[in-house]
Amino acid sequence: MTPYKILIIDDESKIRTLLARILELEGFEIHQAADLKSGFRKMETVEPDVVLCDVKLPDGSGVDFAAKVKKAFPSVEIILLTAYGNIPDGVQAIKNGAFDYITKGDDNAKILPLLYRAIERRKLNRVKDADRSVSLPRLSLEGLTGSSPVFQEALKMARKVAPTNASVLLTGETGTGKEVFANAIHKASPRGDQNFVAINCSAFGKDLLESELFGHKAGAFTGAVKDQKGLFEEAHKGTIFLDEIGEMALDLQAKLLRVLESGEFIKIGETKPSKVDVRIIAATNRNFEKEIALGTFREDLYYRISVFEIRLPSLRERSEDIAEITRQFITYFNKQYGRDVKSVGKEVLKKLEAYSWPGNIRELKNTIERALILSEEDLLHASDFPLWIQQHVPEETTMELSRIEKMHILKVLKFTNGNKTKTAELLGIGLTTLYRKISEYGLND
């Protein structure tokens, strides 16, 4: 599989070298430039998948450069890095098409996970550019895949609530398809021909999230040269999907509660309230009872957003659906890559059905895509899949191996005094993989 291409634009050679080394260890193909002019020339020759660009460069601003990149290369994603973050630049960067805007140093641990999310967006953009007619059956409740009782129960509840105007809270593990469900509920509702606007609340800092949601008036802060609509206004008469709502700061929760109760909000820099007619669908993988007890989530807001709560089952709870979902993904990626893969071998399917899928449907989708790219036949074989699928062992053994792996990671973390980059190197795994395992084993504290 051809490695993804990353272009690093920064006038500080030490930063470029450090970032390049980290990303090369992850298997990326790295290109570098010291200024915007040479960076753009390099884009024309190599067309990277993602650009990591400093905000302040000798020949211009990375914020303005983001707009130029998106105009010339619409499917390329750009992440801006700055030594001194500020709200106006952050807002303008996102408006100019940047995937995200983060501060150097404080946000170093976010770069790799953010980069992988940008690549996922890049892959989706490529599909849209290549063939606008190719899409997963995600825009209707009828298109959602699964015949297992637990999935059908969630689908039944979605059908009941779709025609109403009730707020919906989708709960479940990461990767279970909450945005797909939200979009399907919207499409099946009387608002289905209006805007569906989605935002991941964990992807923005508090101030930037407030501006994104509610907008701002000209002069509200330095750099706010004109009025800016927020996503609530964009979703007027339609639906707004607030993913990872548990990450929202308490003062923003209060503003959201006001929207739910009265349909009103106040833009940044404004004194008069604006009014909208919006249906809210929210999602979380957190336990709100614990969050409320800890004081990190408002109890009154929880009751307002959870008028109708739907729990989406994990993939391991609906393993009987894996064959059907796998066929759907094979059809999808056949169209994307011009292939004609028929199916997976019976023994492989047994392994897929026995695997625990901690990343749920998202992980299965990525796994099938990888296998189809590697496959040279019209049937997917075990050798086309990652080793953890090929060498899947019984659950009891898996639990023991997991315990050993957890203890080993702890030991290496202690040896490196918590240095995750060094720990990943010593373990021989990617930094993103290490973060996933730290989260999986609850080693964050």
Estimated radius of gyration: 23 Å
Averaging pLDDT over every residue, what do you get?
84
The CATH topology of the largest domain is Rossmann fold
Which structural category fits the helices and strands?
A: alpha/beta
The residue fraction in helices comes out at 40-55%
Give the strand order of the largest sheet, numbering strands 1, 2, ... along the chain: 2-1-3-6-7
In CATH's first tier, which class of the largest domain applies?
Answer: Alpha Beta
CATH architecture of the largest domain: 3-Layer(aba) Sandwich
Strand content: 5-15%
Spatial shape: globular
Uncertain regions spanning at least 5 consecutive residues: 127-139, 394-398
Query: In total, how many domains does the architecture comprise?
Result: 4
Alpha carbon gap, first and last residue: 36 Å
What kind of sheet is the major sheet?
5 strands, parallel
Number of strands: 16
Q: Please report the number of helical segments.
A: 19
Looking at this structure, what is the CATH superfamily of the largest domain? P-loop containing nucleotide triphosphate hydrolases
What topology emerges from the helices and strands here?
Layout: E1 5-9, H1 13-25, E2 29-33, H2 36-46, E3 50-54, E4 56-57, E5 60-61, H3 62-72, E6 77-82, H4 87-95, E7 100-103, H5 111-130, H6 149-161, E8 168-171, H7 178-187, E9 196-200, H8 206-214, H9 231-234, E10 239-243, H10 250-262, E11 264-265, E12 274-275, E13 279-284, H11 288-294, H12 299-305, E14 308-311, H13 322-337, E15 343-344, H14 346-354, H15 360-374, E16 379-380, H16 387-390, H17 395-415, H18 420-427, H19 431-440
Parallel strand pairs: 1-2, 1-3, 3-6, 6-7, 8-13, 8-14, 9-10, 10-13, 15-16
Antiparallel strand pairs: 4-5, 11-12
